[in-house]
Specification:
The protein has 184 residues and is mainly beta. The chain has one helix at residues 2-24, and strands at residues 31-35, 48-57, 61-70, 96-101, 107-108, 116-124, 130-140, 143-156, 161-170, 173-183. It is globular, with a radius of gyration of 21 Å.
Length: 184
């Protein structure tokens, strides 16, 4: 009888260690991702035709390289320039490379544009989801404005689908979108 109790205790300890070890594993978002516009729910103001993300992830940081093609603005046109890099340095669908530290601390984004400052913050949730926050302060002729983007990242379909729920707060109000990316 004592042997059964000891064996059961050892078995429970092994299961506990395995469960804790499984929880310590960080979700890995690394890979090349392509936006599935047919599944995504995008704001009309965003005008994204296509988007790709190349994500590199280490234990310490997450680097996201974004390339976006936007539809031409019918009101103003864009001179045939469908590839737009300006658009907010990745914040509003423009081309950019942003590196987040995964320690939950806020960092400054390296930027070649001297028009403002971008702060980045990333934090893993207990359920393996990733929360990203980007805050940009831009100086304009009419004063400073602030843009804040909150993103919640989640992997589905055995890591083949990345869902990003995004809320972008601007002086014009909040735009919400839900983007579905397929791993390439």
């Amino acid at each position: 009888m004592k042997i059964k109790i000891v064996l059961m205790a050892v078995f429970c300890i092994i299961l506990s260690v395995a469960a804790v070890s499984a929880q310590d594993k960080t979700t890995n978002f690394a890979g090349n991702w392509e936006l599935d516009t047919s599944k995504s729910k995008l704001s009309d103001r965003v005008r994204i035709e296509s988007m790709t993300m190349n994500i590199a992830q280490t234990e310490k940081d997450l680097t996201v390289e974004t390339k976006t093609t936007r539809a031409e603005n019918e009101m103003r046109g864009n001179g045939g320039n469908r590839r737009r890099g300006g658009g907010g340095g990745g914040m509003m669908g423009g081309d950019a490379t942003l590196t987040y530290t995964l320690d939950g601390k806020e960092t400054l984004a390296e930027s070649s544009a001297a028009i403002g400052e971008t702060k980045l913050k990333a934090k893993f949730e207990k359920d393996g989801k990733l929360k990203l926050v980007q805050t940009r302060t831009i100086e304009t002729q009419m004063g400073g404005i602030s843009i804040k983007i909150n993103e919640n990242w989640e992997l589905k379909d055995d890591g083949k689908t990345l869902i990003i729920k995004r809320d972008m707060e601007t002086p014009r109000g909040t735009q919400s979108s839900e983007m579905y990316f397929t791993k390439q």
